[in-house]
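ok, trying the design again with the full structure, not the truncated one.
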């Protein structure tokens, strides 16, 4: 689905790239799963947009704000909101 939405490659090229040996089998299987042909799917859907939570994560500051430099900061940045270990006194 990504290749159909995000590239201009032909449906036939995509069919072979994802492992099908027959365009007919690819189109039939795609239609059974999605409910429309690969060509009509491409026409009816624009580029994929990342969910808001992913966009917010990507825009998150990488370093704590303030006057401290990252080396001076007692807390390390964490990726999942977990508290970092405090520096030893």
């Amino acid at each position: 689905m990504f290749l159909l939405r995000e590239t201009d490659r032909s449906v036939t090229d995509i069919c072979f790239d994802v492992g099908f040996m027959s365009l007919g089998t690819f189109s039939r299987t795609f239609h059974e799963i999605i409910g429309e042909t690969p060509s009509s799917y491409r026409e009816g859907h624009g580029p994929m947009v990342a969910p808001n939570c992913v966009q917010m994560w990507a825009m998150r500051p990488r370093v704590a704000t303030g006057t401290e430099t990252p080396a001076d900061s007692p807390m390390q940045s964490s990726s999942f909101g977990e508290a970092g270990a405090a520096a030893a006194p």
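Keeping the full-length input from now on. Residues 24 and 30 are 10 Å apart (CA to CA).
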